[in-house]
Predict the structure.
Amino acid sequence: MMYMKHRTQVLLDHPQYDFLKALARKEGVGLGELVRRFVEEKRQAFFRHFRKDPIEKRIGIFRDPECTSENYEDFLYGKPGE
């Protein structure tokens, strides 16, 4: 799939620019390609966090000292007679 590309400007300080230029030269790519790779790596890492099992992500978000392994059904379905 082909996506529309956007042009942007970024102001870098001298050490940042020198670092990126040296790394781009070492990897044999242009500065723009290097920045796109950095952004894509960060984007993938961000979304990997949300791909976990939805149930697993919720384990422990609610803590109730009264809810135990013996009476958890009361909390899920209500106490008998209620």
